[in-house]
């Protein structure tokens, strides 16, 4: 965590200078270098931020720390940070619900699942529900990511069997991005486990696309 913070400060300075130079290069090759510095620097910054999120999530899990929050505060900012995400639920007031649970883990998990789907889709559906469950002494927060753009046909049988293996790769998408699907999903599953929940992956019967499904036990405040 400390090393990540040490890296992010000089990285922000590099990205800041790169933005100042944007449009200053007349040479096309130098302009291309500047764009690549910004693209890869931004990606590295995102990775370091993710690591900090995971450190915080692991700490909460070990210490048993829970927080009280509205679902709107946990979900809406994340959805807004990705293009084309719509939030759906059977309960029209669900975002106003106040719950108690591992908030940092839940936010990190939803962010990871949206980030994974965003490599392939610009019309992601984030389906959220709260299901009463006496077995966990409260409710289960269910989060389903649909319209991921990851078609079942894109993956061979080996990859389907090993979706949560860290070093399995999905095919290259239309933008040339080759996402580490197994690594992304394995990280998401670990975050779900930190929150005493589960993460699974199924094929949507209507669209033939993969869908991510997470369940996290929470307590609904009254």
Cα Rg: 19 Å
The run of helices and strands is HHEHEEHEEHHEE
Mean pLDDT: 85
First and last CA, distance = 36 Å
Shape: globular
Total of helices: 6
Which blocks of ≥5 consecutive residues have pLDDT under 50? 174-178
Tell me about the largest β-sheet.
Answer: 7 strands, mixed
Helix content: 40-55%
DSSP strand content = 15-25%
The counted number of beta strands is 7
Task: Classify the secondary structure makeup into a structural class.
Answer: alpha+beta
Protein architecture, described:
There is one protein chain. It is built from six helices and seven strands, in the order H-H-E-H-E-E-H-E-E-H-H-E-E. The chain has 222 residues and is of the alpha+beta class. Strands 1, 2, 3, 4, 5, 6 and 7 form a seven-stranded mixed β-sheet that branches. A hairpin with a 6-residue loop joins strand 6 and strand 7. The longest helix has 36 residues. The protein is globular and about 65 Å long. 28% of the residues are buried. About 2% of the residues have low confidence.
List the helices and strands and how they pair.
Elements: H1 2-21, H2 28-63, E1 67-70, H3 71-80, E2 86-88, E3 98-101, H4 103-118, E4 125-133, E5 138-146, H5 157-161, H6 181-194, E6 198-203, E7 210-220
Parallel strand pairs: 2-4
Antiparallel strand pairs: 1-3, 3-7, 4-5, 5-7, 6-7
Helix pairs in contact: 1-2, 3-4, 4-6
Comma- or semicolon-separated keywords:
7 strands; alpha+beta; globular; 6 helices; 7-stranded mixed beta sheet; 222 residues
């Amino acid at each position: 965590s400390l090393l990540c913070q040490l890296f992010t400060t000089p990285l922000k300075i590099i990205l800041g200078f790169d933005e100042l130079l944007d449009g200053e290069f007349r040479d096309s090759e130098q302009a291309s270098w500047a764009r690549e510095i910004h693209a890869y620097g931004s990606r590295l910054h995102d990775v370091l931020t993710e690591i900090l999120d995971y450190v915080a999530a692991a700490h909460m899990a070990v210490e048993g720390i829970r927080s009280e929050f509205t679902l709107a505060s946990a979900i809406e900012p994340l959805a807004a940070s990705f293009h084309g995400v719509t939030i759906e639920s059977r309960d029209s007031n669900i975002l106003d619900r106040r719950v108690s649970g591992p908030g940092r883990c839940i936010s990190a998990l939803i962010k990871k699942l949206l980030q994974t789907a965003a490599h392939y889709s610009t019309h992601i559906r984030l389906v959220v529900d709260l299901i009463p469950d006496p077995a966990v002494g409260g409710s289960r927060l269910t989060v389903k990511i649909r319209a991921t753009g990851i078609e079942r046909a894109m993956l061979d049988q080996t990859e389907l069997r090993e979706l949560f293996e860290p070093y399995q790769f999905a095919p290259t998408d239309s933008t040339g991005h080759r996402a580490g699907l197994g690594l992304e999903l394995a990280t998401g599953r670990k975050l779900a486990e930190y929150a005493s929940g589960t993460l699974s992956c199924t094929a949507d019967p209507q669209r033939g696309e993969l869908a991510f499904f997470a369940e996290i036990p929470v307590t609904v405040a009254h």
